[in-house]
Amino acid sequence: MITIDNIVINLKLNYAIVLLKTTISLRRMFERIAFNLNFEYHCRRLREIDDKPFISFVVPTRNEAVYLPKLLTSINYITQICKVPIETVVVDYRSEDGTPDIARKMGAKVVEVDKPGVGYASYVGVLSSKGDIIIRTDADVIMTPSAIQETIKVFTDNPEKLVATVGHIYYPLDLATNLIAYLYDRYIRKPHNTTGYFIAFKKEVSSKLNFDPRLKANDDWDFGFRALKILGPSKLYYNYYVATFVSSRLIKKKGYLKYLIENLGIVKATPIPYSQLSNLPHTPSS
After folding, report:
1. Is 283 inside any structural domain?
2. Hey, CA dihedral for 104, 108, 112, 117, is it positive or negative?
3. Which sign, positive or negative, has the C-alpha torsion 78, 80, 81, 85?
4. Is 285 a member of any domain?
5. What is the mean pLDDT of residues 12-28?
6. Domain count of the fold of the chain
7. CB within 10 Å: which end of the chain, N or C, has fewer?
8. CA neighbor of 240 nearest in space, from 163, 125, 147, 105
9. pLDDT attached to residue 261
10. Strand partners, 142
11. Range 4-16 average pLDDT
12. Sign of the C-alpha dihedral computed for residues 228, 231, 232 and 234 taken in this order
């Protein structure tokens, strides 16, 4: 027989379980943030690596004068202080805010293109890169030594791994957005769910797998799904605990609800092809 006392007891038990799980998740979320903020520790580990691969960062931009300096400052820190050989390739489409000049002044190689679409910019950036490892990232990222150390370690210790990605932490740091990010990274995201803030792959892969130059947006997700199809799941690597810092501008622009339903796969954002890019001399594998 069901009584009100039984109902209340069950509700209290459920509440206690949810509270415990939330508390554990919050603690681990803050531990993850602290781990990736420890630049000096991870930089020291990077300096201890004798034979480092040459890394190329590919950064598609358009009017990113506000955010780009943070990214380039963090990359330059990894180059100069952590002693990692790096080139940064900024591929810019008709910026009107001085983005290319900022990139050049901060040591980046700039490729200016006259065709729109982040897919095209990423595609050109890969073709312009010389690194053993290519990392596609976004202009609003703060790159972490932890992500670079993890990538070098994975590709060195596991030669069969060809594509790697890591988790994300939103800045400015606030509880709601970062709890969402942590739960998504920890429990939902799969290795082929690659996003633009960090997609690392070996140069050898680019002969059969590059970003789709026809895509206006979502070239990052498309890359991951094609990597899964072409390379297979055993070639992909993902570590949710290691992370980069990413501006929360996108989640704020979309709103929490739309962000959640898209990332849960309830609603899919369909990449939009540019018809004017359909006759490129080089086309990626599909």
Report:
1. no
2. negative
3. positive
4. no
5. 81
6. 1
7. N
8. 147
9. 73
10. 245
11. 78
12. negative
- We report the CATH number of the domain holding residue 265 as 3.90.550.10
- Which tokens hold the place of 86? 């790096």
Distance CA 27, CA 17 (A): 15
Exposed e or buried b per residue across 252-264, where buried means at least 16 C-beta atoms within 10 angstroms of its C-beta: eeeeeeebbeebe
Written in H, E and C, the secondary structure of the chain is: CCCHHHHHHHHHHHHHHHHHHHHHHHHHHHHHHHHHHCHHHHHHHHHCCCCCCCEEEEEEECCCCCCHHHHHHHHHHHHHCCCCCEEEEEEEECCCCCHHHHHHHCCCEEEEECCCCHHHHHHHHHHCCCCCEEEECCCCEECCHHHHHHHHHHHHHCCCCCEEEEEEEEECCCHHHHHHHHHHHHHHCCCCCCCCCCEEEEHHHHHCCCCCCCECCCHHHHHHHHHHHHHCHHHEEEEEEEEEEEECHHHHHHCHHHHHHHHCCCCCCCCCECHHHCCCCCCCCC
- Establish if 282 belongs to a structural domain: no
Region for 198 from its dihedrals, namely left if φ exceeds 0, alpha if ψ lies in -120 to 50, beta otherwise: beta
* pLDDT tens-digit map of 96-154: 999 999 999 999 999 999 999 999 999 999 999 999 999 999 999 999 999 999 999 99
Q: Copy the structure tokens of residue 165.
A: 């990605």
Residue (of 216, 205, 229, 189) closest to 271 by Cα position: 216
Structural domain that includes position 32: 4-277
Indicate whether 25 belongs to any domain.
Answer: yes
